Amino acid sequence: LIAKSAGNTGGSITSPGKGWNLLAVGGTDDHNTVGWGDDTMYASSAYINPASPNGDREKPEIVAPATNITAISSGNTPLTRSGTSYAAPQVAGLAALLIDRDSTLSAWPEASRAILMASATHNIVGPTGIPTGQELRDGAGAINAAFADDIAQNRNTSPTTPCEESCWWGSGTSGVPEGDYLYRYFNASAGQY
Cβ-count burial of 177 within 10 angstroms (0-12 exposed, 13-18 middle, 19+ buried)? Predict the structure, then answer.
């Protein structure tokens, strides 16, 4: 799994963030509070979707905090900066933690990507989910590490037995021809993720 900063253009996604097989990460401003209620998008976070034949590309796919991030610089001194370059490592680190939770994910970057996006339940702006044809500044939403961890712990390998809680499938997915379908089942109640 490759996580790439979306860019700080306030408009178009920067390359190689436009690539099909990498996760472009936009930025949020959490206003240095614990609660989610006041979170906004980082003003410079790139979000304009790249052109595609079917108009079905959504970038960034996910967002993470990008404002006033303190890290250790050379010389072992704290440095506080802002930008999507500070959001992308958080997503890469979360992906590494998911792989640590279930090492099978190391061979399936597409499953790690799906878990990260499915667990991005913190919607910053616009509609929830990823409706086609809209410029969603926050993609699927902001990362939710606790929910991603819950999903990574529950792997289902049955094509017919439904999941009773958040889970991911990790077998029987190879050899599906392009344009064909792969069915997996889950049970959910209203209001449940």
Answer: exposed
Q: Which long-range contacts (CB under 8 A, 24 or more apart) does 106-110 make?
A: 108/170, 109/1, 109/2
Confidence of residue 179 (pLDDT cuts 50, 70, 90): confident
What separation in angstroms does the CA of 64 have from each of 14, 76, 137, 172? 17, 24, 12, 32
d(CA 92, CA 98): 10
User: Count H helices, E strands: the chain?
Assistant: 3, 8
Q: Average pLDDT, stretch 85-91? A: 96
Q: How far apart are CA 64 and CA 28, in angstroms?
A: 6
Q: Write down the pLDDT at residue 188.
A: 81
Tell me the pLDDT of the chain averaged across its residues. 89
Q: Which amino acid is located at 32 in the chain? A: N
SS3 for 105? Answer: helix
- Which runs of E-coded beta strand occur in the chain? 3-5, 23-29, 40-41, 62-65, 69-72, 78-81, 155-156, 168-169
The pTM of this model reads 0.88
Residues for the chain: how many in total? 193
- For 4-21, give one letter per residue: b (16+ CB within 10 A) or e: bbbbbeeebbbeebbeee
